[in-house]
Structures are given as C-alpha cells and as structure tokens.
Amino acid sequence: MNLQNTIMILKKYWAAQGCLILESYDLEKGAGTFNPATFLRSLGPEQWNAAYVELSRRPIDGRYSKNTNRLQSYYQFQVIMKPAPKNIQQIYLKSLKTINLDHKKHDIKFVDDNWESPTLGACGVGWEVWIDGMEVTQFTYFQQIGGIILDPISVEITYGIERLAMHIQNKDNIYDLNWNDKLTYRDIYFENEKQWSIYNFEKSNIDMLKQHFINWETEAKILIYDGHIYPAYDAVIKCSHLFNLLEARKIFSVSERIDYILRIRSIAKLVAEKYLRLVLKNKKNK
Amino acid sequence: MKDALLEIYTEEIPPLCIELALKQMENIASKIFFDSNLQYRVIEKYGTSRRLVLIIKKLCEISKGFTKCVLGPPLRISLDSKKKYTHIAIEFVKKNKITFKELGIKKTRSGEFLFFIKKIKGIKTEKLLATIFPDIIKNINFPKTMIWESSRFEFVRPIRNILAIYGHKKVKFRIADVNSLNQTIISCNYKNKKIRIDSVEKYISVMRDKYVIINQNERKEKLKISIQTVANRIGLAVFDNFLINYVNYLVEYPSAILCTFNKRYLTLPFEILEICIKKKQKCFFVNDKCNRLSNYFIAIKNGISEHQDKNIKIGYEKVVAARLADAELFYQNDLRNGINVNAQKLKKMVFQKEIGTIYDKIERIKCIANLFNEKLNMHIDKLLLEKIIMFSKIDLASEIVFEYPELQGIIGKIYALKLGESLEFAEAIEQHYWPLTASGSLPISKLASLISLSDKLDTLVSSLSLELEFSSSNDPHGIKRLGIGVARIIMRDFKDQDLTNIIFKIVEFLPKNFIKKIDTKIVKEKLINFLWQRIENILKLEGYTFSEIKTVINNNRFDQLKSPGLLYLKLFALRKAMAKPNFNSILSAFKRINNILNNKNKVKNEMSLHVVNELLLIEEAEKILFFTVKGLEIKIMNYISKNEYEKIFDEMSKISILVNIFFEKVLVMVKDKSIKYNRLFLLNYIKNIFSKFVDLSFL
Predict the structure, then answer these.
(1) Most exposed of B431, B450, B530, B667 (fewest Cβ within 10 Å)?
(2) d(CA A270, CA A274)
(3) The pTM is what?
C-alpha cells in the first residue's frame, strides 16, 4: 500500500465515522494541533468531528537527508472528535486494520504519555501508541486548551503518516517509501530536506527572525484587543513557528527559551478566551 | 459468607500508578469495612495494564449490629423542680424516636446527663457494597487525573466497564457514566467482548483462559520465565527490577521476543545503549555466556506468542537500529568535533539573556570556585579546578546531549575519560549536576561538590537578579529545586564556614553592564533570604518541626550566612532541653516576659536603649533576678560564642526559676512610672541576652 493510498483510506475511514474531512491549514506549524480546526474548535460546547492531513514543521528534527527516519517536515493525519466517543480506542484500532496493521499480527501498546504544548497552554492525558515498538500515533484526551478547562472533552488522534507507511511498506528508510507506485519519498523530498536542514540550522537570519517574532507578537496583541480572533490566532501560529526556527539555531538559554514559550502562551491564551466568549455568545443568540 | 469482587476496567493505566492505586484501594476498603462493622477474611488486590481488582474473601453477609450510648441534655435542665421531664428532655426523646422508659442517667466527669442505648442493626452486605464499591473508586488518589465524559468524574484513565459481584449476584451502582455489571471485557478482534463472570472463585481462571493474567505476581513470573527462555540460547537476560515491574503493568499477558542489533553498536558507551534500548524502548538486555553485553535484546509483546511474532521482531529491531544509528552518528560527530569546536559553540549558546552565554557562565563559575578555594583554604589545584569547570559544560554543545538532554554530565564524563582524563576529573563532571532531584544524591568528591555549588550559586544569582518567577506551587525555571541543591551542599560541606562575604561577592561577577541596571544590595539580601528559606525546607525534610526550626533560626539571620551548621547543634540542644521536666518552667517564664513586653508595643523600640537602674530595684525578687542574670551574662555570651548550647539551656533553666518567682512576688505595672519602666527594662534585658540564641515564642 503506497503512502497516498494510506492517506486516502484513512480519510475514507474517518469520514465514515462522521468526521468532516478538511484540508490542511496554510501556515507553517509544528503540529496538526495548531490548525484552528483543532485549537479553536476544541473550545466550547458544540460537537465537532474532523480529520485532515497536516504538514508538521519541526526545524530542530532536520538531519540533512542523512537520517533514515527523521525529517524536519513530515505529515500528520489528525483526527479530532468532540465529545470523545466511548469506544474511541476500538475505532482507532479498526482504522489500523484498514491500512493493513492487523493487531493480531503486531504488538500494539498504549504507552502513557501526557501530552503538553506549553506554547499553546494546552495539555491532555493519553498515550503514545506503539506498533512493534515504533511510536506511530499520539492519542490524547484534551484537558485544557489555551489555559481553558475543556467541557466537553475532545479526543485527538495524531498518526505519523511516514512512520505508519514505513511499517506498512516494510521499509527501513523513509526515503524508500512509495508515495504512489511511481515516485518515492526520495524523489519528492530528499533534496528538499537537505536544503531546509541547511537553512534551519545554519542560514536562517537570526536577527530577522527575532524581529519578526516581535512584530507578529505585537500584531497578535493588537488584533486580540480589537477582537479579530482568527487573524490574531494566525499571528500566534507565526510566532510559534518563528520560535521553532530560532530554537534550531541553538541560541536559546534555558530561561530565554522558557521566556519565549511564555510569551507565545500568553497570546494563545488570550485568543482562546476571546474565541470561547464569541462561541458562547453566538450560541446564546441562536 | 461469600466473596466479593470489584474490577475497574479502564483504558491503559500508566504502569507506575497501578501499585499505588491498588494499595489505596485495599486501605480504603479495609477502613470502610471496619467502620461499617463488616467482617471478612482477607482482601486481595490485583492489577493489569487495564484492570484494578479487589477481591474480598469470605465477606459476612450482614454487617454486625452494635449498640452505642447516646448522651442527651444535662440532668439539671432535663428535670424540673417537680422531677418532671422538661421540654428539653421531651424534645430529646422525640428526636431519637424512643420512649421515656429507655432513658437513663449517666454520671460523667462534667456532671449527670440523660442517655439511652441505641441499637444499630446490621445491614445486608449486598446493599452496603452498592455504596462501598463506588466510594472506593472515588477515593483513589492518582498523581494525575483526567476527565473524559459529561459527569466530569476524575480518574487516571477512562473507566469503560465495572465488574462488581458479591457471591453470584451483581452489585448495582453507577459511576462515571458506567453501570456496574456482572460482566468484564476482553478485547477480541476489534470488538470488546463481554464475558459473564458468575462467581468470584472462577474469575481468575476464566480470565487466564482468555489470556489475561490477573495476578501481577503470577504474570511477573511468567514474564521472567519467558524472557529467560528466549535468552537461553545467548546467555542470561539482564533483569532490571524497575523495568520488569514497569513492563509487567504494560501488559495483560506477556510474551518475550528475542531481537538483535548490529554488533558494531556494542562499541558505543553503555549509557547510550541503555537510553536507546532500555529507557526508550522498554526492552531487556542480554549478556552472553561470558557475561558480557551481547547484541541481543528482548522485546515484550502483549498477548500470546505466535508464529506471526516475526513481524513484531522485525519491527522492534528496526526501531532500535534507527535509534542506535542516530546515536552513533551524534557520538561520532561529537568525538570528531572535539573540545575546541564545542567550546566555540558554547560562546554562541545563551545562558540567560543580558547575562551572557554558557561560555561566560563557565568563566563566572571559575571565579566563584576560585573564591571558595582561596577564602576557605580548600587547597584544590587551581589549574585542575579551572580545567574541569571548562570541561563540565562542554557536553552541552554535543549532539548527543541535544538529542538526549538527560545524558548531560554523563556524556561529559565519557568524553573526558575518552580523552585520557582521570576518573576523579570525569566524575566531577557528571556529579556537578547533582543533586538531580530534591532528595537525589549529593556530589561525592570535594571537587565535584565545589563545582556543583559554584555553578548553582551562579544560576541562582542570575535568576534572582533577573527576577525570574517562582512561587510555592509554581517553579517553571526550577529555581527552588536548584536552591534546595545549594542548601543541601552547604549544609553538608560548608556548614561550619562563614559564607556571607563569598556569597555577597558572587553578585559582582555578573556582567558589568548588567550590574549597573540592578540594585546589588537587594539581590544580596534576596539571595541570603532565599538560601535561609531553603535551609528551613531541608530541616523540615529532616524531620524538625516548624516551631523548632523557627525557634533556633535567630532574628538577625537575614544579613549573614555564617556557620549554618550550628543550627544542628542548637536543634540538638533544644530537643534535649525539651525532653527535661523543667523545660515548661523555662517556657512559661520566657513566654510571660514576651507577653508583657509585647503589650508595651509603643515603647518596645526604645526599650532596648535603656539600661536597668540598680537603684530603682526594690523588691528582693527583682534584685536577685537582676544580679544573677548580670553575673551570668558574660558566661552565657561565652557559651554562645563557643556554641555550647546545652549549657545555655541549663542557665536558662536556673534563671527561669527566678523569673517565675519574680512574676509571683513583684507587680510590674505599678503606678510609679520609673519603677514600672525599670522592671520592664529588666525583663527586656533578659530577653535580649537570650534572643541572640533562641526565640522561644514559636514553641
């Protein structure tokens, strides 16, 4: 099963579970959770079921194309369901079967891992799901987003698509993955990874990134103040990515790093609070 | 008598929480059974990755009835002058639904009361369990809980089924959106298959037939045997107790799978193999027949062993190979880069904004360590000291530490040894991060302890100058943890030194431009204050009470950090004195002095400036008191300077007798102001002598 089929099967499967199949959000982000379809939509009382593929950019994980299973950008298949269905673990295990990962032939373990995104003021309780020792999914019951205690609780399931595909296609090297039956991951991303690794680790303009961070942070605050929640949230995402780029340059001290995280968190929290207020107001007006 | 069974079936519970939960369940159950007068033979507790189980053997079918004496109103208001019951007594009878015949009179120490004997009937266990079981579930504390459904019940992971039976009957209750059943769940072909459990006796064996080993000890045995069985061909499996227990609660039916990795990785340092295979992948090492580490490891699968395990083996090997390949690359890069390249990298790594890079920090650690070394005549070779300090942070620039931060210090040690440095040198690098936790081991050698202290003090001074936040509940920068480390090292290795000047000097090592912006005096005060608070924390952890600690930490502690170790001598003397019968006399004497002086708040401040006028002493008791104390003053000061604290308590005891006589015989608050104030001055004089030693008002 090639990679694009894997994605298509998962999309079909989750659509059948009642999920809205969305396309990815067009900003650089470290995880599918940053997509407003998860961060904002997990707030508030309305039911929300969605699934989408998201490009996840982690500059720090770049390996100049030299590593067989690490990339600075890779794909996540993200599912968010609110409220969390009672049999969600079963639903998830069945999804693995649809992509040829039968749990009778594999060792599937839920290894406790409490997810936390300090930058988003978000935390949840859950597991890493291991298939034969390889972490392929993060399975989380959200508890807080933007510092707000959630009600109802959403469940977030994040598959690492390349990891899954490596297992399904029995490949040792990520670049050997078949994207379709003609092209491999190498054909599409090998050169891309190399160049981005060089940029992320060596070439990015630190002063410019720092200045952009300040600019977008200010912009976020102004937008929040004026009540433009969605544009403000985009500014938060941009700050987060700028922080990730700066972090790859290894210039942060421990406390400076924490300081940046706290700054992003404070604007993320404000956005979440304003968004929730808006949602509750709209619901009342209905 | 029948057996009772409670099985909480959840999504996978974190392994480290399971034994904690089981222990609590047992305690809660036995307490509730005791309180309900419900007798049983024994409570058994079992846990798997998804189940918390209590079995109560031979539980009585009804709780034992008992009688208790209920006291009513006092007799004097229960009967009127004509010996008739008053409305108060009638009210009592009505309220308790009894007859007047049942009333009796009971003599107690506080007088006579109406009373009656209340009979409490036994309740059927079946009925009791319907509230006892949910109470057990509600009262388990977990380090971290979650919410997953609309009733917002909190538990470690979502509860998906509850099996609750007594004998052959279901115990009915509802909790967290789940109704209890006489069924449990096993996962089977992507469906939760419900299995009916008809009797407690059969539960464990029925589950075993379905490949769920309920009993953790039985499962652990199976785990060990299956590990050793697959390891036999190679040699002996390495049984790490922590890992065994962890993995045992990660599964319901363990099967071992022998896997292998490329031999060349055996040349990597063991710590790196350990983190890749054991810590990250939860797999077991295997030693070969000569007891050397082999290139085999054992993965544990959840479920029965099958021919399809080949897939699983391939999977685990792939993950481990990828991790090792990654680590090997980092390791080789690090060795190739060597010290100089990494030292250059440190010049670009910011330690704290405005305060500079890690490289700058290293220079400051050198200054601080040198200062200690010189001022306290520690006789450590300066060149060696500076070299280790430089080396101690080098691994922060290494790729392997960037990947596995928990290896900081350990990698430094390995690289130092690789470059031919001595073991003492290498170990100082590792240990300069110690203690890693509030109660973790302290650095062993004098060298390591000095570097650790210097490093931590520098971070503390920087953090306090930058006003980084920390509070009792929130410590995002780990400042308090660091402080505990500093205080523990001081209390072990520097407790007899005057550190005040050294500590003050440290602030001046900060960058000049930065110092201009801060008030160094405030920072110094903050630092000393902060360290004393941590010292208090440590004493508390060592079992001293709050009042004992407050008693011995004298009031002028904030401006100096001199011989903090003397606190131990004082505490020792205090405890010894407190054990003596005359201690109450000391306490009451000095409390009375404090009380009377505190009442005179207005004059409190000027009081210390005044001297007792001998001519104004009139009564015999006050004369004796004054001259005795005056005679002892120098002796006491001498004891204080020589730290002979037990002797001071002896003197206090003598003086306290005179003080108590003074209070008996002499009125302080007389009309004549000059005499009154003279007496207050006398008491203040006594107070001041001892306040340099202890402050008894906390006791």
Answers:
(1) B667
(2) 6
(3) 0.81
